[in-house]
Design brief:
The complex is a heterodimer of chains A (about 250) and B (about 100).
Chain A: H1 3-9, E1 13-15, H2 25-38, E2 40-46, H3 53-65, E3 69-76, H4 81-91, E4 97-101, H5 105-113, E5 119-121, H6 134-141, E6 146-150, H7 152-156, H8 159-178, E7 183-186, H9 198-207, H10 212-218, H11 221-234, E8 238-240, E9 243-244
Helix pairs in contact in A: 5-6, 9-10
Chain B: E1 6-15, H1 21-42, E2 47-52, E3 57-63, H2 67-75, E4 79-80, E5 83-93, H3 96-104
Antiparallel strand pairs in B: 1-3, 1-5, 2-3, 4-5
Helix pairs in contact in B: 1-2
The chains are: A alpha/beta (about 250), B alpha+beta (about 100).
């Protein structure tokens, strides 16, 4: 079998939430190198809204050195629906991944129905501000967004706090399954000692109530398809999903 | 009675300083017990086959049915004997022989 086929068939693993300081290149290069050795092919670091394009390229270069694909991501924290819409309008074409931190019900609902949003993230341990109920799920399933779960609280919490976290996520996973919402499992780590291999992340996803196939998809197919779709859209020839300008000019 | 299927896991741990065999296996059992309770831990049929303090590696045997539970428990280890640590699964195999062959490759 040709080697390229084997590579093409290999599952691509992604971690879309490495919460690192984008200006601390030393920590980023250490974490990215570790991610590469663990088998990740795609990583994303949340960047500030005003992050310069040259600095973005610098990060991409660090990742390319260890054969990891860098994805630019921005986390939006809006105070009102209008502010969120305006941020989305301004930033959609600048970043490959847009994640909305749903700190209020108003923001959660708006983010769920907006097709420009890629990921929805809910506050990990503030259970009064987790808005993934059936109404929210119905809105998400009619848009393109996926639900992002951070694994970080699993590492940091202990005892009753971890029990409550697992039980809340399991309840929300069952709602997400009913509405077939794509689930993305990210690490959400701030320190490279908490980085885990994709297989271990999939095992944690199973602990959170996902079945074997969905658990693996949560660290591979689901995040990769979001990045692929957005890169296609951000490309210069994109017209509509499935329609692309291949050649322009008089000789067409 | 049919013998239950087993899996051998080659583990590698990162830790500040060295860890004794007792500290390591206590941390593994502790994590499984915290996550799945004593009943769940007993069904893993976990046993330590080999431990190498210098190479920071260990070989454990578990029941196949408990593979994902053990992997999740190992992933959640963040401290061993008050030292920052993490445990990673390097290889999984059905027999020690094939595990050694895979590791050599």
């Amino acid at each position: 079998m040709p080697r390229e086929w084997v590579v093409a068939m290999k599952r691509v693993f992604a971690d879309l939430h490495l919460q690192l300081n984008p200006k601390d290149t030393l920590s980023i290069s250490r974490t990215v190198a570790k991610s590469a050795s663990f088998g990740y092919h795609l990583i994303a670091v949340p960047l500030p809204v005003d992050f310069r394009a040259e600095e973005k390229e610098k990060l991409a270069k660090i990742c390319n050195n260890v054969e990891v694909d860098f994805v630019s991501r921005v986390d939006l924290r809006a105070k009102s629906r209008d502010q969120l819409v305006s941020q989305l309008r301004k930033l959609r074409r600048k970043y490959e991944i847009i994640c909305v931190s749903c700190d209020s019900k108003e923001i959660a609902r708006q983010a769920a129905k907006d097709r420009r949003v890629d990921l929805l993230n809910f506050p990990s341990v503030d259970y009064k501000r987790r808005f993934l109920d059936r109404a929210e799920a119905e809105l998400i399933c009619s848009s393109l967004a996926a639900w992002e779960i951070d694994a970080k609280p699993l590492f940091l919490l202990e005892g009753p706090a971890r029990i409550r976290f697992i039980s809340t996520i399991r309840r929300e996973v069952s709602v997400a399954k009913d509405f077939r919402i794509p689930i993305v499992l990210s690490s959400g780590i701030t320190d490279d000692s908490l980085l885990r291999k994709p297989g271990e992340m999939a095992a944690l996803a199973e602990l959170l109530g996902l079945d074997e196939v969905t658990a693996l998809e949560a660290v591979s197919t689901a995040p990769v398809s979001i990045v692929k779709r957005n890169r296609e859209k951000l490309g210069s020839g994109f017209v509509a999903p499935g329609i692309e300008i291949i050649k322009e000019g008089n000789d067409c | 009675m049919k013998r239950s299927k087993r899996r051998y896991l080659l583990l590698q741990f990162d830790a500040d300083g060295t860890l004794s065999q007792r500290e390591f296996i206590d941390a593994v059992w502790g994590s499984i017990t915290r996550l799945y309770g004593e009943s769940g831990a007993s069904s893993t049929n976990l046993s330590l086959i080999n431990y190498n303090e210098e190479r920071k590696s260990a070989l454990i045997r578990i029941s196949l049915n408990a593979l994902q539970s053990v992997r999740a428990s190992l992933a959640l280890i963040t401290r061993i004997a008050d030292k920052k640590a993490s445990v990673h699964v390097i290889r999984i195999s059905g027999t020690i022989k094939s595990l050694e062959e895979k590791t050599k490759q």
